[in-house]
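Lab notebook page, bench 4
Experiment: in silico fold of construct C2
Operator: M.H.
Input chain length: 364 residues
Purpose: comparison with the prior construct
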Amino acid sequence: MVRFPASPTASLWLKISRFLFIATVGASTWLYSAIANARLPIDLEVAIEAGASLTAPQEWTMLLGKMGLATVRMRKIRPKDQPKVAAHQIGSAARYQVLAILSRQNELVLPKRRFLFRDQRALQDYFQQLPLETAHNQVPRGRFDLTEKQFRTVFASLAPSIDFPTQSRTGDELLARLEKTLVVPVIRLPPTREPLALPVKTELKGISIGTALAIALREHGLVLRPEQPRGKTLRLSIAVYERERDAWPTGWKSGKNIRLVAPQLFEKLTIEVNDYTFTQALDALETRIQLPVVFDQWMLRKRKLVPEQAIIQMDRRKTYLKGVLDHLASQARLATDFRVDEQGQPFLWITQFGKDSPSAAVSQ
């Protein structure tokens, strides 16, 4: 058998055949077709800035051809060209058109990112994440970066009332009991281990799970945060409090007029207070208040406030019960806030307002 050596010309043609050079009016276009190897539904168009290296288009085209993109096309830049991503639905599948700029500094400029030729791994990761990122950004999102459906799922999961005593249980014990009924899984981030081992001071039986958990965790500087990281399932994270980050609230604003939800707070009474502590006064008014009274234990500790030692006075007068509570709280350097839980059940939140004491949230 006679074997003929491969023709250098044929070999060169095999290499060049992957690229199609198309002459256009006043411009040249390099088009790489990778349909056979495509793993990502991305059509990339690269606009080349004037002054770019003459070899840069071919070098970048060869590199991008290994990224698993559907097509890669090079052309001269136009006056209004800016990096962008556009998504189009083709049947049941999405297709992504991406415009990048190849700069004279030999950088590939994509939306929100710049890549040098040596950044091959990072560039591959960018393209891999692009469909997920674009799909995520196209869905309307609200609080906690959740869709309305995701938020409602979390809200419904946290709406049932706690039907067992919570006072003196540790945070871990409280969570272990609640996790048996929660639809959304709970994730404890590492720095929370020690605080969760501490006992809960507040009795939260009868309050809905979401509000109760937020209150119990806040006692030790922790928060409850719903989230769905990319590529993972919806979850509830237990994390350390950060002022700049949102967290599940310790109660909500009522969608109804307070007078309708708790009319007893607007009943008039004649009252005089002499040498009572704030907590003694609350105990004396308990049968009139007819609401759970919950102290912001974390804020009390942070501001070194002791309601059991705060002596209050009030001259004899006839006024509304709500006005009485506000007046007495102010003497103890505190404030009252009317809130409701996920079921709309009202309670009084006793705190000291400030940067670390967020207002009641408005439900989506």
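Observations: The chain is about 30% helix and 30% strand. The longest helix spans residues 120-138.
Next step: discuss at group meeting.
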